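Because discrete structure vocabularies remain unfamiliar, it helps to consider an illustrative case, giving the amino acid sequence and backbone structure tokens:
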Amino acid sequence: MIMFDLNKKYFKDMQHIVYKQWDNIEINAVLNGINPGWVFVNEQINPKTALLWSRGIEGFYFIGEPDNDQFNQNACDFVMNILDKRIRQSGLNYFEVSGDRPEWDSILEQIFDKQELIKSRQCVYKFDLERWKDHEMRSDQKGVTVYRIDKSFFQNRIENFSFVEDEILRWWNSLEHFFEHAFGYCVVCDEIIVSYCLTNFVYGNTYTLGIETLKDYRRKGYCQIAVEAFITDLLEHDSVPYWDCMYTKVASRKLAEKIGFYLDHTYALYRILLSEEE
């Protein structure tokens, strides 16, 4: 079976096969042409199933009809013997994948049954406006400045712009691309960026967020300050936040629940370590 690398001009035509009971923001953001990625199909006309790569996630999604034997029977060979070279060129030594619906879990385990699968879980949190209104906002702290991350932000005198810039360029094609579609907030203390909340994906009026705090500045509430500024901005523009994190990221999950999110669902994530090149 031949897999076709779908031309980006046809990405939007694939959105109808994506599972509608989950938001699948990361998938739809790629298909909508907002975030960078690839799509592989085995049929050029009306494909029922596809394998989608998200550059920001550094991983893949099986999307569409899970019971597509023609697609599934050759998927492992395609990944392990053809796609692996492209994955390595992206600087990775593993293949990571999940499905756009629960039914994919058992199918993926069958497709890659000869591989050593490392399984974990991701948590998807939805925003509850009433919970947000009821939560106690983090008060301003002395010596801390909150900045909106946009074009003007990079004109400030801050030592570690790369802390934010490198993360933006992981998810977006360029800073200009980010400024066109997204934004973020960061907390500056001691003249350095100590914590940020950035837009990772955008689909419609939904913005997924990504957070990080420098190790020496954790457990001081800086991340909460950045997230609250980010969400306040979103709400002022009739948009909503979306939170997806690893089940094992307990601090991230606790913060999400503290400020007004609730767990909507979890999904399986699979990783296969690629063998070393000969």
In short: Helices lie at 25-31, 69-89, 104-111, 129-134, 162-171, 175-181, 222-236, 250-259. The domain at 129-259 is CATH 3.40.630.30 (Aminopeptidase). The longest strand covers residues 261-273.
